Every structure is written in structure tokens, then in C-alpha cells.
Amino acid sequence: MSDAAMKLVVVGAAGRMGQTLIRLIHSIEGATLHAAVERAGSPFIGRDAGEIAGLGPTGIIIGDDPLQAFLHAEGVLDFTSPAATAEFSGLAAQARIVHVIGTTGCSADNDARIAAAARHARIVKSGNMSLGVNLLSVLAGQAARALDPIDWDIEILEMHHKHKVDAPSGTALLLGEAAAKGRGIDLASKSVRVRDGHTGAREAGTIGFATLRGGSVIGEHSVLFAGEGEIVTLSHSAADRSIFARGAIKAALWARDKKPGLYSMLDVLGLSSQ
Ligand code: NAD
């Protein structure tokens, strides 16, 4: 592995996470900003990425050609949209560079393209890149394993800012997957995503989701285990987007010398066997 700083491309450079990543890369030893990319037609094309992020000029000008940006890079940090991410996974695999995917709301089709790209590329994908949420998912899995599904109902509650476009959040789904795995059930067939009107009584063994949207909330998640006469709540509050950006950069550095494959943040953080 090279000792030189890892050359990273930020796609979605003018977005909330893109700007946070650009600010943070500068403060992390071992990582350097190589290029910044936005969607074609974005008003930020041609602007200095550092200026957009509030850092001052960096000399890295935001472009709209990912192929060109990936050419001499070693990794791409991607918090964009599902369609863009599926496209980038093919390009990153072609360029043989690390692809860190934070984008949420991917369809089964998007995920299939990402999995195909992972045959040639090192991809780290997670609905939440923070250490805290990944630890929370391990704890939720352990609690789900320990508590009888007939006596304990699992509900996942999340709140995000009003601009978020997908629901439930990638993190809520990640926590649901962890709880389902702990119980040895399949989340897709056991989850209740919406309740409205005369729903009837709660079906034992299901995992419910509730979504709140409003204001500037960065991310609030709770996993509730509701029993007869008592509730156990495991929760996480994100106070700053830098927790996700720091995790994403850590993931890129971790994947630098790994074999091609699709990895999660649990692998990066050494929590996958918990
Ligand atoms: P945002 O809308 O502020 O930013 C997305 C940016 O991507 C925009 O600037 C948009 O122009 C750009 N973009 C879209 N298509 C593009 C393309 N083809 N090429 C280049 N740029 C493109 O959104 P955000 O709040 O930064 O979130 C982005 C994604 O990251 C969402 O899916 C969100 O849920 C997810 N997210 C994940 C984590 C995590 O830890 N995994 C944390 C926060 C947000």
C-alpha cells in the first residue's frame, strides 16, 4: 500500500454531505481531495469546491465528468441519489477505485448494479457511516435475540430534516435489519412500514417503522422494545453531519488495500462478528 495520502473524489460535492466531506478531508491525515463532481447542469459547476464548502479556495474546481475525475483517483465518496450511485458504481469499478456509498433509498435494481460492480471493485455501503449507529445496530441485534418475540414488540422511530426524500431512512432500515437478524426473521416479510385507519391489532413478531420529518434535524433514531408494563429504548442522536463524513473517509482508507467485494461499516469498524 502506498504511504502517500489517498486521492479521493467527492461526488455530489455541493450537497449537504458533499460539503461536509470536503471540509473534513482537509483535516484528515492520509486523505486528500483529488476532484469534486456535481450533476450536469448544476449551478455549482466551475466553482471552487473549497469555497462552496466554506473552506476558502482549494484549487479543486467542481466538474460534471465523473469518468475524468476517477481517472487518477484512488477512491470516491458518494452521497448523491440512487440512480447516480448505481451509475458511479460501474464507473468506479472500471477505474478500479474504492467506492464508498452513503446514498440511501436504493431500489433492488440499483442494489443489483452495485453488487455486480463489487465483483471488480472495493465497495463499502452503509445507510449510516457513524460509529454510534453501527454500535447501536449491534446492540439492537443482541436485544432482539434476547427478548421473546411474543412478549416484546419492536418499533423503530426516526426523525430527519424536511428535505429528506426517502422513508424510512437508510438508518432505520439498517436497524430493522439488525433486529430482524437477531430474531432470525426476514425483515421484508415482517416489517410494517405504514399504519393508517382501522389497522386491527398489532401482529406479534412484526417490526414497525414510524417516520417524522421536519426542520433541520440531522438524524434521530430509536429502537423500542415494548413489553407488558415496560419499554427498553436504544437510541442515537446525530448532532453534526461530520460523524457520517468521518466514517466515510475512514471506510475509504480501510478499503484501500482490501480485495474486491461489498463491505459494510460493520466490517470497517470491526463490529461484524458481534
Ligand atoms: P443533498 O441533496 O444535499 O446532496 C446530494 C447532492 O448530490 C446534490 O448536490 C445533487 O446535485 C448531487 N447529485 C445528484 N445526482 C448527481 C450526479 N449524477 N452527479 C453528481 N452529483 C449528483 O443530500 P444529502 O443530505 O447530502 O444526502 C445525500 C444522500 O446521502 C441521501 O441519500 C441521504 O439519505 C444520504 N445520507 C447518508 C448518510 C450515511 O451515513 N449513510 C448520512 C447522511 C445522508
UniProtKB/TrEMBL annotation:
Catalytic reaction list: (S)-2,3,4,5-tetrahydrodipicolinate + NAD(+) + H2O = (2S,4S)-4-hydroxy-2,3,4,5-tetrahydrodipicolinate + NADH + H(+); (S)-2,3,4,5-tetrahydrodipicolinate + NADP(+) + H2O = (2S,4S)-4-hydroxy-2,3,4,5-tetrahydrodipicolinate + NADPH + H(+)
Top-rank EC class of the record's enzyme: oxidoreductase
Top-level taxon of the source organism: Bacteria
UniProt xrefs under PROSITE patterns: DAPB
Principal location class: cytoplasm
Pathway(s) annotated for this protein in UniProt: Amino-acid biosynthesis; L-lysine biosynthesis via DAP pathway; (S)-tetrahydrodipicolinate from L-aspartate: step 4/4
SUPFAM superfamilies to which the protein is assigned, alphabetical: Glyceraldehyde-3-phosphate dehydrogenase-like, C-terminal domain (SSF55347), NAD(P)-binding Rossmann-fold domains (SSF51735)
Gene Ontology CC annotation, any one: cytosol
HAMAP family noted in UniProt: DapB
Stated role: Catalyzes the conversion of 4-hydroxy-tetrahydrodipicolinate (HTPA) to tetrahydrodipicolinate.
Protein name: 4-hydroxy-tetrahydrodipicolinate reductase
